[in-house]
Specification:
- Four copies of one chain form a homotetramer.
- Chain A is mainly α.
- Chain A has three domains: about 10-130, Four Helix Bundle (Hemerythrin (Met), subunit A) (Up-down Bundle); about 135-250, Helix Hairpins (Orthogonal Bundle); about 255-285, no CATH class.
- Chain A has 13 helices and two strands, in the order αααααααααααααββ.
- In chain A, strands 1-2 form a two-stranded antiparallel ribbon.
- In chain A, a hairpin with a 6-residue loop joins strand 1 (about 250-255) and strand 2 (about 260).
- The first copy, chain A, is flat.
- The first copy, chain A, starts with 7 loop residues before the first helix and ends in a 26-residue tail after the last strand.
- Chains A and B meet through helix 2, helix 8, helix 9, helix 10 and helix 11 of A and helix 10, helix 11, helix 12 and helix 13 of B.
Chain lengths: ~290, ~290, ~290, ~290
């Protein structure tokens, strides 16, 4: 690895900015999450025409302030990390850069409103802080369960795609362009809106046949929402049971009657009363 | 504690109003819940313009009747409780006061329509009766399961917020203010409406790209509704299994070292190796 | 009981109409379910103005045919049942009567359109046939699980009522009658539509504050849909596990080493090799 | 069976087209799935009026290209399969034929737009590839769980039909044709839209009574969505537990009477009492 030696000052900064063990590191994380969220809220408010007209200048100044703050933070991160290239090329490094680039680009290229939206990717920086606050431990549990049931969910989505295509085509034929089902992509969009039970109502069946087929589709959608729920619940239940079992069972056998003992605190066999081997021990220094 | 001695009359009232063991106490609770609900219904009906025009006077009289009833009840509660300050400052005491204050305030300040809405907080008083009726036992089970999975649900909602922000921005860029996505907060509102499968249809995508991205968002929303369900179900299943196991394992104490033994088949103490009493037995006729 | 002796003919009819063991009885059930469904479909079609204008006469004739059929069936049921009063007063007897009364009443009282709707209660007669086809066995499993979690679900719905009342009032204050939230009952209706994720879109928030509060309500509704699901799933999982355990465990103890044996087919102790007592036996004639 | 001998060339083609073990076979499947999806996308895009006007000729040419490809593939499949009649009459054979017939028919019969939609059934051909990619293994797990809970789900849907019929009729009576509930089928359609929480908003209650009944229906629908979820989750949880248990219990056979022993701790055969081989061992060094 291209890891360099850090000066004591770099090490100090590294612990505060990247670490989470010291109180200073935790305060830094808390401030960072606050600054990120404020900056995201400002971008959102700036997009409201009324507020932009009244407070546009203020929002711009605040935005530049945040950009400078993030720039300084980004520079310090590069300066104090032991593996500079590794940080810059990492996902977090790229997100950190994306958080400040658009504002500078808006100086060079005037009309970059859509580009400025990219600044909202700053919200992804929250993941960094979540990770540090060890909340990602819970997220990892969830992610692991999702990953284990990934193939099942992929199959489920393939079936959903086929189902929505079939229902979309059926309603395109039954209702036709006159009733809002202007083309097959629109009809498939309608089928997804319906089967996921979102139901905007911007495209709705009007004919009796179309309504009957729609109702069937809704009932099917209502029933198959149970499938991903069942998959993930079964996975989470299994994970929880497995975790508990692993905690509970470090079983030993009685050397006399070979009965199984799962309680780590037991000293004597519950079946014959003879002394048990030590739990997890190498059977050494056992009397 | 600032607990005072109660006169026999105060004790009698205390048992009826605060207690639930006596038949009189239960009747009082039942009447209270009926009065609260009637009063809430009256407030609701009074807000309908047509009914307000016809029966406004009647509703006002009924409302004053209820307010007087609640005032008398509040006074008696203060009078008969052994710890007056404790009651007044408690959450229930504050809710009891909020239930009657707005009506009196409307005499002093004429235009207090929004303030009168606060009277609807009376509905929170139902919790008191639910608690007494021991139905909150079931609520506690639910609350405990929710609390244990609280961190997982917090992580889930953080991810939801980030997801809805990203989808909201995407559609703001793709659809633009012309198609109803006037600003980013509106777009995020649309994303929440869509991903939670509510789907009002007040803001809907019109362009093909916007519809394709929306459909993806719906399918994701449809799949991740499985996650909180899975979390809570796994928690409730575990709680139920734990409860059942605790019921099934009838624990005994070793008569020699008083260690706890849960296994019904154990004959000897796992701690000291001496014989155990028989399970479920009266410790008599033990060999 | 007022049970009379049946003539052989009555017994024969009783077996066919009420029973399900004989082939004739099963054919009768199948025909009955077909007639009921056709009659329900006819009532539905007759309500469509266009079809009523063209085929109104035909529908009326068909309806009278069905009514006569049901009348004959009802008469035979009374005639052949051993306990006449019991049948007439039973839930099924009342539903059978309700299925034919409205048509006769329409002769006496001309304008009884709403009354004719009662004929649709015929659909409840399907339950009788489902029961006979032993499909209600599955329904009973579901009903038992629902009943066991009844108190939890009651608490859940009380909380839902309180939650929707609070959200309804909040939006009544925030949006006001100008934006469709004309009165508190309408606002509560909107809150129920929103929190259950139905989302018609007939009443929607317009102000920023209203939308923010609504979005919060949606996310809460999206999360708490997990609660009834969790309750019922945990109950069904427990029921299934209990059923399986009861099937699997009829445990015996080895008379030599008291090891537990759960396999019903085992003849010898797996621990010490001595002969086991017979399963389920009274320990009599055991060698 | 009418199975013929295959020439080596036929066998070679058979392995590539029908098989999935060889690298060539896997490449063929991947190409096939790509071609199918492209062809489906082309049909969808062709239905958009704007694109049809501009690129209609191109789409037609591409469509003919795909049809010829599928025709060649179909011919080769028939030529190389050992059981020609079996393939042609099988479900996959019929779908393969349906994928190319409509395009040829459009030459003979000019106005066959609805018929051309049938080409979209090509999407069903994806199942064949999914099966080959062994992803249908996961689908089979899901299908088995759905099948085992099939009777429960049938009962659930019967109750849903009865419930929606009753709610539909109630709102037809309460709201009447003036408020969009023009006839009972429309009202039942509305009830299905509501209870499945789709909620288009094309038909909505307007009267207070109608809204109150609707709200009740929504809450019921919101609660009973838990039922199919619970059924399938309980089934999947049980399936997973069973699978794990089967994996964990490593069965042995008694060397004397060949009875199966699953308990890892057993020392003696439970059937004949003779000593068992060690679990997981190579039957060597047994004392």
């Amino acid at each position: 690895m291209a890891q360099r030696d850090q000066t004591p000052l770099q090490l100090k900064f590294y612990e505060v900015i990247f670490g989470t063990e010291t109180p200073a590191g935790r305060w830094f994380d808390l401030c960072l999450i606050l600054v990120i969220m404020t900056s995201v809220v400002v971008i959102m408010l700036d997009s409201i025409p009324g507020l932009h007209a009244d407070y546009g200048r203020l929002f711009l100044q605040v935005e530049w302030l945040f950009t400078l703050l993030f720039t300084v933070e980004y520079a310090i991160r590069i300066w104090c990390t032991p593996n500079r290239k590794g940080y810059v090329m990492s996902l977090y490094g790229v997100v950190d850069l994306l958080a400040l680039l658009p504002t500078y680009l808006s100086l060079l290229v005037p009309q970059t409103a859509p580009l400025l939206i990219i600044r909202l990717l700053r919200i992804l920086r929250i993941f960094r802080v979540l990770r540090l606050l060890s909340l990602l431990h819970e997220a990892n549990d969830l992610a692991a369960a999702l990953q284990r049931s990934g193939r099942k969910i992929f199959v489920f989505f393939s079936l959903m795609m086929i189902l929505t295509t079939i229902f979309g085509c059926l309603l395109y034929v039954l209702e036709g362009p006159g009733n809002g089902f202007t083309d097959i992509p629109t009809s498939v969009y309608w089928a997804i809106v319906t089967i996921t039970t979102v139901g905007y109502g911007d495209v709705t069946p009007v004919t009796t046949a179309g309504r009957a087929v729609s109702a069937t589709g809704m009932l099917i959608g209502y029933a198959i929402i149970a499938v991903p729920t069942g998959i993930i619940t079964a996975e989470l239940t299994a994970a929880q049971r497995f975790k508990k079992e692993r905690e509970m069972t470090q079983s030993r056998n009685c050397s006399n009657c070979s009965a199984v003992e799962r309680d780590l605190r037991a000293h004597y066999c519950r079946n014959c009363g003879s002394a048990l081997p030590r739990p997890g021990g190498d059977k050494a220094d056992d009397d």
